[in-house]
Write a structure and sequence with these properties.
The protein has helices at residues 66-76, 106-118, 133-136, 151-161, 166-171, 195-208, 226-234, 248-257; strands at 21-30, 33-42, 45-51, 54-61, 86-93, 98-104, 175-181, 186-192, 216-220, 239-242, 260-266, 269-274. The longest helix has 14 residues, at 195-208. The protein has 287 residues and is of the alpha/beta class. Helix 1 (66-76) packs across helix 6 (195-208), helix 6 (195-208) runs parallel beside helix 7 and helix 7 runs parallel beside helix 8. The chain starts with 20 loop residues before the first strand and ends in a 13-residue tail after the last strand.
Length: 287
């Protein structure tokens, strides 16, 4: 079941967007045999996020669910503090890429302009819109413990996610993120060539439907980096499950925020790095 969208959108531009995957003729050598065949590749195009007619960031992303992406990015990067500060999103395809035009509240736009002014003259930065070490670890509200987070739900979500990764099955080059009910039901699944983008799309979909972040957990198919943990915490989600490895910075951030972090989650296996007291079912599993 996918969540409903309720922000105003410019739907007229959507049919003209580039495809998320493209087929190309290739030559493959396998087992000593040469073969000519069609291969599907994930598409990544320049996506410009434009706030109140001022371009803020351009990144390479898969051109699907760009409204979710814009709202999720705006929230997870602190450009807006709540979905109500976003007044509208228009997606416009052009010759050089796609513009996602976001209209935000004047207070949020003033904060964004101050951030951009502090970056003037710099040649680049490791984190988008960040110009100092203090801004890397921006203040995040402590999370209330997750309610009903259970090992059975984690396993149910892990067992279901593969069937929902259509772009990954087609191209082998996409990441996925999912918003899951505590029972493991996949409420929202988004894919993108970028793991941060996939998570932002899910966060945007959650915000547009006014989902309660305490009602479920986030599942990502990628490694759990500092930025991925930070985005999950900023969305108010108290449980994050990663299918690959975590970084030390992500674990320390999750621990400090009160988030239960699982990684190396595959099949019936996982490693719980933080707050295992908030994960039900461990005793029954013999942990």
């Amino acid at each position: 079941m996918d969540l409903m969208n309720d922000l105003p959108l410019n739907d007229d531009s959507l049919p003209s967007l580039p495809p998320s995957a493209v087929s190309r003729q290739v030559v493959r050598m396998r087992g000593g045999t040469l073969q000519s065949l069609q291969d599907s590749m994930v598409n990544e195009v320049p996506i410009a996020l434009v706030y109140n007619e001022i371009s803020h960031a351009v990144m390479m992303a898969t051109p699907d669910d760009l409204e979710d992406f814009a709202l999720g990015f705006s929230l997870s990067e602190g450009i807006i503090e709540k979905p109500g500060e976003c007044y509208g999103i228009d997606v416009v395809n052009g010759a050089d890429g796609v513009e996602v035009q976001v209209e935000i509240a004047s207070g949020a736009f003033m904060r964004l302009k101050e951030r951009r002014r502090s970056l003037t003259g710099r040649t680049g930065c490791g984190l988008c819109g960040v110009d100092s070490l203090q801004q890397v670890c921006r203040p995040l509200a402590p999370l209330a413990p997750s309610q009903g987070f259970h090992t059975a739900g984690v396993r149910a979500a892990l067992g279901a996610i593969g069937a929902r990764q259509q772009l990954t099955r087609l191209t082998g080059a996409a990441h996925a993120a999912a918003w899951c009910g505590m029972d493991g039901d996949l409420r929202v699944v988004r894919e993108d060539v970028g793991r941060h983008n996939a998570l932002d799309k899910v966060i945007g979909a959650m915000a547009r439907s006014a989902a309660n972040p305490r009602d479920g957990f986030l599942l990502i198919t990628s490694r759990v980096s500092f930025e991925m943990a930070q985005k999950a915490i900023s969305a108010g989600v108290a449980a994050l499950v990663g299918m690959s490895a975590p970084t030390l910075a992500a674990v320390e951030l999750a621990d400090a925020a009160g988030m239960t972090l699982l990684a190396f989650a595959r099949g019936a296996d996982f490693v719980c790095y933080t707050h295992p007291q908030h994960l039900l079912g461990l005793e029954n599993d013999g942990a």
